[in-house]
Amino acid sequence: MSDNASPADASTPGQGGGWPLIDGWAKATLSPRGPKLWQTLNHRSACLSCAWGTGGQHGGFRDELGEPLQRCLKSVEAIMAELQPAVPDGVFGTRSLAELQQLSSMEADRLGRLSHPLLLREGRSHYERIGWDDVFAIAEAAFRAPPERVASYSSGRSSNEAAYLLQLLLRAMGSNNLADCSDLCHAPSTVGLNAVFGSGTSMVSLESLQQADCVVLVGSNAPANHPRLMNELIKLRQRGGSVIVINPVIEVGLLKFGSPAFPIRSMLAGSEIASLFLQPVPGSDTAVFLGLQKALLEAGAIKRDFLAAHAEGWEALLEQLEATSWEAITTTCGLSRQELEHTAAVIAAARGVVFAWAMGITHHANGIDNVQAIANTALLSDNVGRPGAGTMPIRGHSNVQGFGSMGVTVKLRAEMQQALEQLLGRPLSRVPGYDTRALIEAADAGRVDSLLCLGGNLWGANPDSGEAKRALGRIDTILYLATKPNQGHFHGLAARQTLVLPVFNRFETPHRTTTESGNNYVRLNEPGTTHLAGADLISEVAFLAELARRLMGSDPIDWGRLQDPAYVRDLISRTVPGYGPIARIDATRQEFSVEGRLFDTPQFPTPSGRARVAPTPLPKLALPKAEHFGGLGPGEGGLVLALITARSYGQHNTVVYKAGDSYRGMPHRHTILMNRADLHRAGLAAHQRVTVQGEAGALEGVEIIPGEIREGAALMFYPEVNVIMKAVVDPRCGTPAFKRVPVLVRGPLASMPAAGTAQPPR
């Protein structure tokens, strides 16, 4: 238990939220964009940030239950970035590609909004402006390639309607190459939960969460990435509940958090969050949950009657627990038997427990095992299929779950496949599609000709940046649909032609759209207008429908009619499971929960109606020796660590809003957070500049920041650190192990005079 841990040093705050939130809101409000910001905050559209965001028909500050004051600073940052003026006319004409490639993520974002289509031709050093007729001529020619050589990649920034059109277009062409950002984040949640419950999303609604008296929060930095969730944790603690945090890093905001949704005293003094804080070895989460299960078994707290009635295969799990020694569990996860037994007792005593997690669980080579171990624990403790209990993956981007619902996935559900085949009047291709990592590998092997990216930063989101750049450079034509420039537009360049195409964002799209929250709630977004005078933007629906019309005309459906989003919603209602009410949403304005996903009773969409339990193996977590990286030189200190790659507090996905991270005491992005005991053992010192060597490359001149991170682990910022890591993935879903990267940290022994230190790169 570590709920009284100190911050990294005296310069870090003693709580998350609080005054920095007030300061952030004040600066945004008083800026020249302040009036437009407030107009946008009150616009009836869903938040641009995380899948826990607010908005829709309830109004800009209200959640799906109508509760007020549910906007966060993360939402403000995202909106302010979209309210930037257009990129100045001379930028792309005068700044060469080589100059643009020197920009950091923050600098690229702050160029402004994209306002006209751009084309980079093979051998040219500058992007040039082109018209939409030329854009469509290039796109049509590119997508007449054989279907197996055509692919897409998407983020969760866009609407359900655009997502549906994207997958319908590619599947009608005969391609299943629908890579998505979820492949790089929550795919283990989808696969793991489907294996256990027959449904791959949260089984917990906001209303159900508010009935829980315990939340187990694993591998999540919710104060930074999902701030609105903190309001629910504060309310849970206020009603006497428990929050169990499991994370190798002690995040200040998970100890205490001040939220503007609460009275001033709570806002300024902060509210206690974690009642228990466990710091396991990175990547050992399956062992942690096996330990909790074993403790429940030995305490007689396993709900056998419940399992007998509502689960199958659980007997084999109990046999595994009996056969697995405590020594094997504690050695693997680095937690004591007493810690695990105490935590299990809290779970057993609770009336209702919600198990929630983010990418600290999924970003591992055994991410699916981690998810299934959590689901098994929920089942063994009778915490599924009733209000106030269940499993709740915390999705990242605002509509990433909606993309999966719309069929943007390489694992299309049989029910939707049949419905699409009926709509199109022919069988869909059975050739397996490329997920994101498979797409990079196929491109690197020269098997992809044309790629359409609907949002996102494919180059920046991938491990091994050098490999990603090389692979994308072997694709003939790449189309990037985006609202703002990002580093991928300058590094992820096609072999012959790269197009960057400006689109409306969610609150300025000239027609209604919908999105889906991480808790299965579908929101309706009203039309808006853009502040960009004279801009030549297009809606994503309009672009995709026109491309489909040019490629397929009226076969087997009238593709031109898909310019009407209401017609797209009609098709969604006929083909997407659980989305029937969307056909009436234009008339009723009634938002809804997706049918068949929220389980208030322990009846699951599996063949037997029961949950499926299976043992999860203990992970093998040995790190390589220093010699694996070339070893240490004379006079050098250092050690091998398990590196966690993470976002900073001022960051959304690959977009950086603030260079430093005051909560972790990391003043810039060229830093590494390390445990003080590791520094002593390695002969290194705080604020020393070191080299961090990974399996794909090295970063030099990295500043050491001492902090509250588990011994043997370290933390650096994504996407900058991607350049040093190889793409080790979970073989069952292709998700990279971003949260356990073996690295050698090395530098001159602290007692010896150090050579000149490098400055952090731009």
From TrEMBL:
Residues 113-478 form the Molybdopterin oxidoreductase domain. Residues 641-742 form the Molybdopterin dinucleotide-binding domain. InterPro entries: Asp_de-COase-like_dom_sf (IPR009010), MoPterin_dinucl-bd_dom (IPR006657), Mopterin_OxRdtase (IPR006656), Mopterin_OxRdtse_a_bac (IPR010046), Prok_molybdopt-oxidoreductase (IPR050123). Keywords: Iron, Iron-sulfur, Metal-binding. It holds the Pfam family Molybdopterin. It comes from Cyanobium gracile UHCC 0281. This is FdhF/YdeP family oxidoreductase. It comes from the Bacteria. Gene3D superfamilies: 2.40.40.20, 3.40.50.740, Dimethylsulfoxide Reductase, domain 2.
